[in-house]
Amino acid sequence: MALYPTHFRKKRGNGWGTLTVLSCRINKPNTRQKDEAVTIKDVSNSFEIGPVHVGGGRFFLIAGPCVIESEAHARRMAESIQRITADLGIPYIFKASYDKANRTSVSSFRGPGLIEGTRILGRLAKDTGLPVLTDVHEPSQCAVAAEAVDVLQIPAFLCRQTDLLVAAGKTGRAINIKKGQFVAPWDMTYPVEKVRSTGNERVFLTERGACFGYNNLVVDYRSLPQMRQLAPVVFDGTHSVQQPSAANGVSGGQPEFIPVLARAAVAAGIDGLFLEVHDDPAHARSDGANALDLKLLKPLLENLLAIHAAAGA
């Protein structure tokens, strides 16, 4: 849709003035987008990550703190969420980052680093039996991280980096590519192809919102069925409410909208849900402003399970 000004001369009192009227024209829809909308169907490729089935609309959860704040805290969060998901019968993958390389400010906490972080994650996986996810930022990190975790995550800002995607794919681990805030859903076919070019078919995509002006994101729910034509799709309900770099050197957020966006995503049809969860968001060392409080997790999941069952997603 576009607005076009039309100017008219109009008599005003003893003189003449100019009246400008804005007319609305509906532009012809992009043929590529229109064709895709007609033929949308979910892909059938699915795979296992330990006990977690990915694909085919079987609901699973990826959750944990944004970053490893300490070994004790990571373990406490993993075990707390594990108890909740076990009670509800939801397959669960723990997530935490060893290094937040894309913090807004150089003075922000980044985490324990690759070596210590992967040691913590590897030990946690062994002790809890949980599959574990962490993100990688450089090709050289992939092999090291793959020794400790089950899923390598490609950050949204890096989703087009060919060398990173190929290095991650070559590890044989499952790969979660977060859709860049600047990338069209249908263009995520190219990152998926880069991973699959290595012979690794275990790849899925995560929607985490699109740039909407400055310091704001919006979710276009059309992206969910569009990307499910390419690979299984997860919805990130916490980064989607983030307000990037909007809080004086750190990102802000609107966590009160996490349940709203998550309910809509489950109703629309997704394979899994991604949530950053913290037991004290106000004092979290990264992304606390958009994290879900741990005490709100179980009632939210109960609600989402009911929607999932009703929607037949």
Give the topology.
Elements: E1 2-12, E2 15-25, H1 31-38, E3 47-49, E4 52-54, E5 60-64, H2 71-88, E6 92-95, H3 114-128, E7 132-135, H4 139-146, E8 151-154, H5 162-170, E9 174-178, H6 189-196, E10 203-207, E11 210-211, E12 217-218, H7 223-227, E13 233-236, E14 242-243, E15 252-253, H8 258-268, E16 272-278, E17 292-293, H9 297-311
Helix pairs in contact: 2-3, 2-9, 4-5, 5-6, 8-9
Distance between the termini: 32 Å
Can you count the helices? 9
Strands side by side in the biggest sheet: 5-6-7-8-9-10-13-16
Task: Catalogue the unreliable spans.
Answer: 31-39
Query: Class by helix and strand content?
Result: alpha/beta
CATH architecture tag? Alpha-Beta Barrel
The number of distinct structural domains comes to: 1
CATH class: Alpha Beta
Task: Tell me the radius of gyration.
Answer: 22 Å
Please describe the biggest sheet, giving its number of strands, its sense, and whether it closes into a barrel.
Answer: 8 strands, parallel, barrel
**What share of residues is helical?**
25-40%
The CATH superfamily bears the name Aldolase class I
Listing every helix as H and every strand as E from the N terminus to the C terminus, the arrangement reads EEHEEEHEHEHEHEHEEEHEEEHEEH
Count of extended strands:
17
Give the CATH topology.
Answer: TIM Barrel
